[in-house]
Design goal:
The protein has helices at about 1-10, 25-30, 45-50; strands at about 15-20, 35-40. With about 55 residues, it is mainly alpha-helical. The protein is flat, with a radius of gyration of 10 Å. Helix 2 links the parallel strand 1 (about 15-20) and strand 2 (about 35-40). It has one domain. About 45% of the residues lie in helices and about 10% in strands.
Amino acid sequence: TSYDMLTGARAGAGIVAGVLTGAHDGPALRRHGATHVLASVAELPAAIREYES
């Protein structure tokens, strides 16, 4: 949710990933601090690898 994105951003998380299968769309997730918007949690490993490089 957007609240989860805000919480992650305020906590200083390096990756704040929103998944489009939830309650909010991509623009709302980004507005609230998402660094990544994923179509599925299956995309999370690639986002982590990208972040680590």
